[in-house]
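Data deposition worksheet. Section B asks for the primary sequence of the deposited chain exactly as it was used as input, without tags or linkers unless they were present during the calculation. Section C holds the resulting structure in token form. Section D is free text for depositor observations; keep each observation to a single sentence. Incomplete worksheets are returned to the depositor.
Section A, Depositor: J.P.
Section B:
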Amino acid sequence: MKRFLLVFIFTSIFVYGFSKNDGFSRWSITAEYGYNFFDGDINQTLLNIFPTSIRDVTYGGTIEYALTPVWGLALDGYFFPLRAVNNSPCAIKIYTDLITSDINATINFTRWIFPNTKSKIYFNGSIGLGYAYYTYDLRYFNDVSVPATDTYIDRKYDGTTQYIHKYENGAPMTFGVAVSVPVTFSVEYNFSKPLAIGAKVHYRAYTKDNLEGATYLNWDGVTNDYIGAGTLFLRFKFNSLSKNHLRNIIWDDFEPDKGLELAKKIEKKLDDLAGRVDTLETKVDSIMPRIAKLEKILSNDGPDSDGDGVPDVRDLSPNTANNTAVDFWGKPLPIPVATKGRALAINELPEDIPAVYFDFDQIDLDNDALVTIQRIAKKMKADTTLTVEVRGYCDYMGNNPYNNLLSQRRSDRVKAELVKVWGIPFDHIISNGKGKIIEPRIKYRPNRRCDFFFGRL
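Section C:
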């Protein structure tokens, strides 16, 4: 037993040194402790679960080399003390000490079924082939050793005298060897990178039918001997703090080719995107001067030589006289004035309707304004294809943001009157606040107005 432990320790040290030279950390070792149950040819009683096999302490361990996150190879070594009693045809106690070592193929069922799971709980299995060496000691119930020369009457063969021990060359044997076939199933919890704890169930078949050492207790037609065991184990994964251990990683991390292929696809997409960005930058560079020019055109800021409220950059009539109503491009607008106290007939309305005027800082509609709105409503009802844009203005007083809002409120007020009072369709009217008119820079009623521009659907 001491030699077995020394070999196991030496192998562990060798494995630890070799594991440092690999791209992944692959080696791990387990130390196990538990109990075994011997299933041999000893007598069985129907009403007892374990009538003649006595559970005893088992210990051992494994050294595993992970080939992939799923598959691996392992070398195990265990000590199984087999203890049992037999009542017939002779009453004896069985003491067998069995040492077994096997090479196993291992599988991580969890990683096999769920290749990329992040679970720390693994279900594992193994199957292998190995070698067993066992020694035995047969004793009577009073703990006196059974002499090699003792015989008993074999009831199977009509009273034939049989020796309890097997003889080789005239001498009783004290040890035996056998081939072992182990199958295990385990569950383990990986609570850190280097360490895991778990529990394992063993079922081990042997090619011998005399692990008891009492050869002639065997029954005809009975299968070979088996050992069942349950062990708890602690697993240590070598070099797993400085490298990725295969028992800790997902399958995609193990196959860098897939990751490299994906990276190449992403790189190609990035190159294509970079090309598109370069093309877009070129287009943006060519568009930016035009956008800058458009911003100047849309803005009301900038030099205004004739003081009509339209900056020079878009003013198509740069010499407009003071107090002339102009459109967006600075062109003069004809604004007729209704004769006070006389309503114009619908057929007398010019193409450009007279303006609606407001008091200072107000959006209220006076009587003249209501008359003008009435005429516009009649015109639009007479021709349902007409649309109208209501442009609101302010005089010079106040800042630009305030006047922009006030001019919009005035145009909205006129639109609301047309819709709510006269029933003009909402989508036939556009309200547009144009802000303040520059000249004269005083309170000036003609500049506090809404103008009307007609179109057709």
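Section D:
The domain at 2-254 is CATH 2.40.160.20 (Porin).
The chain has six helices and 17 strands.
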